[in-house]
Design a protein that fits this description.
two-stranded antiparallel sheet; alpha/beta; globular; 7 strands; 40% helix; Rossmann fold; 180 residues; 5-stranded parallel sheet
Length: 180
């Protein structure tokens, strides 16, 4: 029997974090095992209880929590990942990754892994179009990270603009292409 592919789903601080719930369901329906890594900021938008219920796995967020198996969390996540998908990917996490900053469980797991990384940005249109954010995206693309670009849609600020998270089906399709 073929072992299930494991997708590490990073969830960052964006109003679009609730979309991760739909993504978990779609990935599980497609046969993937999903382990969620919640940044501190994401915890303001979705709860570990919700994510654990949907994924069937413990939600991880604290890099310094003692692991049950005594293997550091970030390296054990990195080693078992078929894909690391960050959905939503905030401007903050994009900037940290482009700068090589590893100050939380998600960023450390990404840099410790050899698995492909997929980012699905979601943010205000002015933030998304800011030259520094665009430069950071280009840096990450040049270093092999993949993106599902945001679309034009209603933003949290109330206006329409590019920054709305991509359709869940498009994100799942890209996950299927990339998961080893």
């Amino acid at each position: 029997m073929e072992k299930k592919k494991n997708i590490i789903l990073g969830i960052t601080g964006s109003i679009a974090a609730y979309k991760a719930c739909d993504l978990i369901g779609a990935l599980r329906k497609s046969g993937y095992d999903v382990t969620c890594v919640l940044t501190k900021e994401a915890g303001y938008f979705v709860t570990p209880l919700t994510l654990e219920t949907l994924s069937g796995n413990k939600v991880l967020s604290d890099m310094f929590e003692l692991p049950e198996n005594r293997i550091p969390s970030h390296t054990s996540l990195a080693d078992r990942a078929s894909l690391i998908a960050v959905c939503p990917a905030s401007a903050n996490v994009i900037g940290k990754l482009a700068s090589g900053i590893c100050d939380d469980l998600l960023t450390c797991a990404i840099f410790a892994s050899k698995a492909p990384v997929l980012l699905a940005p979601a943010m205000n249109d002015n933030m998304y179009n800011h030259p520094i954010v665009q430069s950071n995206i280009e840096i990450l693309k040049k270093n092999g990270m993949k993106f599902v670009s945001p679309v034009k849609g209603r933003l949290a600020c109330g206006r329409e603009g590019v920054g709305h998270i991509a359709d869940i089906k498009d994100i799942v399709d890209e996950c299927k292409k990339l998961a080893k």
